[in-house]
Amino acid sequence: MNYKIFLDLAVILLATKSLGILMRKLGLPQVVGALLAGLVIGPLCIMLTTTLFKTPIGIEPSLPLKVMAEIGVVMLMFTAGMETNLKEIKSNGVAAIVITSLGVIVPLGLGFLLAVIWHGDFKGMDMNKFLQDFFFGVILTATSVGITVEVLKELGKVKGKVGTSILSAAILDDIIGIVILTIVIGMKNNDVNAGMLILRVLGFFVSAIIVGIFGHMLFKHLSNKKNFQLRRLPIFSLAFCFFMAWSAEAIFKIADITGAFIAGIVLSNMKSTEYIERKIDINSYMIFSPIFFANIGICADFSGFTWSVLLFGFLFVCVGLFAKFVGCGIGAKVCGYNTADSLKCGVGMMARGEVALIVATKGIESGLLAPTMLPAVLMLVICSSFLTPILLKVIYKSDEKKMLAKGLVQGELSDKTDNIVSNALLSNIETPFDANVDVVDQIIKTENEDKKDEN
């Protein structure tokens, strides 16, 4: 056994927490610190030590880290599912479908167009060139919901219309992306049956509904049973999560995070849901979640960068971010969302992570993507992973400030908040929003605490 894994884990946990605290002090989401930690202790550290000491020192990608990172994103989606309101999913079902559809069509089309222009394939395009250019659009359809979920949890916004719409759309997005990926690779290799693929997807959802109904009834019965030890429920729940994740991937060829998310929904809205979620969250927060986010940076490989790839990567990042933002944002607007909520949906769907890397790897294996273009995909993953949480927090903070300003004018704020505002006014501040961000943050925190007390 290679005991270096223990040293790697120690460094990852210390680095992610330290940089997470630093990001929080700077007013940024802590997940940005975890992503940055992965880059610092991974490829950047290896490049620096190799240059200075001719000996690479740092954390390299490994199978144990990959497995633990996968467990991390599965647990993250499981807790997100438990925090999801089924009534919100029902009410936002149409919106999620519309957001997902435009969030797939727009990136697919713009990614294909960028590749055609870059390769100059306007004339004499055969089926092979068409599939290779089309594959760049397929890469852009992928969404990494894990990063967005962590930010929404940090902001306390998983529940509600926008959070539920983003989660539901991201799950549908993954499924549609996998279907498109399988069909395109099959057209290249002539070994896929589109009809069987669609039947597998339908079979998964039918099975998930059946298992979900009986699973919910069983866990609800156990949580209401007088003599049942409540401490056993988190263990049974986590086992159920892993089973659903395995069945989604192994039996139906659908992403494991989809199965984990549905397992969380099955266990939502029960008397013991909050207790289960709290226990699962401890394990996720302590080890698996930091490893997942750090592993994205650790797996970054800068060895294939050239000026040509760098230029294409820059264009690919711009098109990728713009396409998701516009597609999902317009989809939300079409469904009647206001401008602020539409912006949140557009930004929340921009993140790409392990899903985009998996799609790119499959493309290289099938001959649809040249290995030299992988750094461009890596640029998209890194840039979107950093920008999405920052922009999402800025939009939410801005929206909350506007709502508080409206509440001040209409006199809808609580007594505690009135005291904070009064103190700010006594300090020769014309309005608390013109002065200090700390005052606004204090108001937001007070209002959120009052809402929790009311609930």
In short:
With 455 residues, this protein is an all-alpha fold. The chain has helices at residues 4-25, 30-53, 63-82, 86-91, 93-119, 127-141, 145-155, 161-189, 194-224, 232-250, 256-266, 273-298, 307-334, 339-348, 354-366, 374-410, 415-426, 432-435, 437-454. Helix 5 crosses helix 6 (127-141), helix 8 (161-189) packs antiparallel against helix 9 and helix 8 (161-189) packs across helix 14 (339-348).
Q: How is this structure best described in words?
A:
Helices cover 80% and strands 0% of the residues. It contains 19 helices and no strands. The protein has 455 residues and is mainly α.
Largest sheet: none
What are the low-pLDDT stretches, counting only 5+ consecutive residues below 50? 424-440
Structural class: mainly alpha
Strand-and-helix sequence, N→C?
A: HHHHHHHHHHHHHHHHHHH
Kindly provide the radius of gyration, computed on alpha-carbon positions and rounded to a whole number of angstroms. Answer: 23 Å
Number of strands: 0
Proportion of strand residues: under 5%
**What is the 3D shape?**
globular
Measured between the Cα atoms of the first and last residue, the distance is 50 Å
* Helix content, binned percent: over 70%
Mean of all residue-level pLDDT scores: 79
Number of helices: 19
